[in-house]
Amino acid sequence: MVSSLHSTAVVEYSLIEVLRHAEAEFRLSELPEFELTSEGEARPIDPLVRDEVYRICREALSNAFRHGYAQHVSVKIHFLADSFEVIVTDDGQGIDEVTLREGREGHFGLRGMHAHAKRVGATLSIDSQLGRGTKITLYVKTTKPIWRRWRREQKPEEEYLARDESAR
Which of 6, 11, 112, 164 has a CA-to-CA distance to 105 between 20 and 30 Å? Predict the structure, then answer.
């Protein structure tokens, strides 16, 4: 819940900037080495989509920095004409099969990543083996109308307040 309170929903921040902030949040020492790169022409991303992508990548970085004992972590963003892809890799200890499939008891990190991806109609894959690090690939179509449709269906706050008052 505390992580959800950390909002980046400010239009002026790019995906690259919010991911740079996530790295700084977990930095406790010189290691792991961190590299953030992008290919293609960076462009604005709907802040709601960007925030879901941020939450997924933040969890991946948290795992790599805090639990994975990685020496190297990289984030690559590939901007394509109608989509973008974010690949987070680390050379840490990896994740065992059971945890990949079921998550850790009492933790919602991996399940949460999948839920955030589903919200924006993205494809998420997590490839990891013990002793071989982790690779997380997130593919987001930017031409999908999912967010435009979601925004149209939202009612202004005043309508919610008026409806709540009339229900009393």
Answer: 6
In the beta sheet, which residues pair with residue 138? 86, 124
- Residues near 36 by beta carbon (within 8 Å), at least 6 away in sequence: 16, 19, 20, 23, 74, 75, 77
Instruction: Give residue 37's identity as a one-letter amino acid code.
Output: T
Return the closest-CA partner of residue 114 out of 142, 138, 150. 138
Which residues constitute the domain of residue 63? Answer: 2-167
Q: Are 77 and 37 in contact (CB under 8 A)?
A: yes
163 CB neighbour count, 10 Å cutoff: 10
pLDDT in tens, 37-76: 999 998 888 888 899 999 999 999 988 888 778 899 999 9
CATH number of the domain within which 97 lies: 3.30.565.10
Q: How many domains does the chain have?
A: 1
Of all residues in the chain, the percent with pLDDT exceeding 70 is 74
Chain CA centroid to CA 145, Å: 20
The three-class DSSP label of residue 101 is helix
In degrees, rounded to 5, the angle at the alpha carbon of residue 132 between the alpha carbons of residues 127 and 32 is 100
Alpha-helical runs (H) found in 84-156? 97-102, 109-119, 146-153
Q: What is the largest CA-CA distance in the chain?
A: 59
